[in-house]
Amino acid sequence: MRYEELAGHPGVFHAPVAGNAAAARAMAEVLDAQETRRAEGFRRARDAERHRVAHVLLRLVLGAHLGEAPERLVFRRRACPGCGGPHGKPYLDGHPVHFSLSHTADHVLLALACAPVGVDVEAVPGAATAREVLPALHLREREELTGLADAELAARLARCWARKEAALKATGLALTEGAEEPYVGSAGRPAQVPGLVLTDLPAPGGHRAALAVAEPVGRRGP
């Protein structure tokens, strides 16, 4: 399995899907029954490959980090903050490490941290898709993006969406309450989000990525 830790961002790992599909199939025995059923349930082979690459990566990196065999790791899920069902943020049974996983059609990102963490990678959409998504954002973000030329709109919207997804994953909310809050901005630097350190990540061409890590309680502002 071929993956790399992002330079300057310890604990953040990238793996290409296509380049790892065969390796992930060969290592599929490290996955648990639920992960295996999910991979086998996809109608499209590409979706199954992406799922296997993401979850084999997760087990390999966590196993190496914790000194555990990848297949022995047991994952649980917290209650969903939206409906209370058992499909909320995943966590590792018996270990305090926090992690977040994100993928597009072609790339997987994984982040590990000692505090709640969220990572997200987004493909830059077409201009039409960007304009469809625009109304879901915070008012200030809509104001920043409205009127931009197609190419700039799409690139900045992908940047904004990656930041927002990362922030919401770190808080455990995901998109259960919509994409309006928090305000993360679409300009060159992320806006400050209370309780989080939000950072843009280097991303493959045609993509944008971001990382959010919860600040220690003692360092948070009022």
UniProtKB/TrEMBL annotation:
Instruction: Note the SUPFAM superfamilies from the entry.
Output: 4'-phosphopantetheinyl transferase
Q: Name one Pfam family in it.
A: ACPS
Q: Which InterPro entries does the record match to this protein?
A: 4-PPantetheinyl_Trfase_dom (IPR008278), 4-PPantetheinyl_Trfase_dom_sf (IPR037143), P-Pant_transferase_sf (IPR050559)
Q: Keyword annotations for this protein?
A: Transferase
Q: Which residues form the 4'-phosphopantetheinyl transferase domain?
A: 116-176
Question: Does Transferase count among this protein's keywords?
Answer: yes
UniProt key word Methyltransferase? no
Q: Tell me which family the UniProt entry assigns to this protein.
A: Belongs to the P-Pant transferase superfamily. Gsp/Sfp/HetI/AcpT family.
Know the name of this protein?
4'-phosphopantetheinyl transferase domain-containing protein
The species this protein belongs to is Streptomyces sanyensis
